[in-house]
Amino acid sequence: MSIDQNTAARVAKLARIKVEQDALPALADEFNTILGFIEQLNEVDVDGVEPMTSVTPQRLKRRVDEVTDGNQQAKILSNAPDAREGFFAVPKVVE
């Protein structure tokens, strides 16, 4: 696949990047260089290679997944302009 100047201008417009007309040939060449690198990566045989998230194996810290109320009701409601019976009180908006 090859990128021409019109396509480079369209990509710049979609990215909301102002590119002067005389800079379009260089931009198209850069896009073509990037696409060439991607084509080189597609030639690599990755069958049987397991995906990884880091170059060093790491195990995430785990905790028990427990549902709690946070035990902060009084602290949270202390900032409310109006609280009643443990809840935020708001004006009635529907008759």
From TrEMBL:
Q: Name one Pfam family in it.
A: GatC
Reaction(s) catalysed by this chain's protein: L-aspartyl-tRNA(Asn) + L-glutamine + ATP + H2O = L-asparaginyl-tRNA(Asn) + L-glutamate + ADP + phosphate + 2 H(+); L-glutamyl-tRNA(Gln) + L-glutamine + ATP + H2O = L-glutaminyl-tRNA(Gln) + L-glutamate + ADP + phosphate + H(+)
Question: EC?
Answer: 6.3.5.-
Q: Which residues form a coiled coil?
A: none
> Quick check: keyword Nucleotide-binding in the entry?
yes
Q: Name one GO biological process term.
A: regulation of translational fidelity
Keywords in alphabetical order:
ATP-binding, Ligase, Nucleotide-binding, Protein biosynthesis, Transferase
Q: Give yes or no: UniProt keyword ATP-binding.
A: yes
So which residues are the signal peptide here? none
Q: Which domain of life is it from?
A: Bacteria
Picking any one GO molecular function of the record gives:
transferase activity
What does the function comment of this entry state?
A: Allows the formation of correctly charged Asn-tRNA(Asn) or Gln-tRNA(Gln) through the transamidation of misacylated Asp-tRNA(Asn) or Glu-tRNA(Gln) in organisms which lack either or both of asparaginyl-tRNA or glutaminyl-tRNA synthetases. The reaction takes place in the presence of glutamine and ATP through an activated phospho-Asp-tRNA(Asn) or phospho-Glu-tRNA(Gln).
Q: How does it assemble?
A: Heterotrimer of A, B and C subunits.
Q: Which family does it belong to?
A: Belongs to the GatC family.
Q: Under what name is this protein listed?
A: Aspartyl/glutamyl-tRNA(Asn/Gln) amidotransferase subunit C
Show the taxonomic lineage.
Answer: Bacteria, Pseudomonadati, Pseudomonadota, Alphaproteobacteria, Rhodobacterales
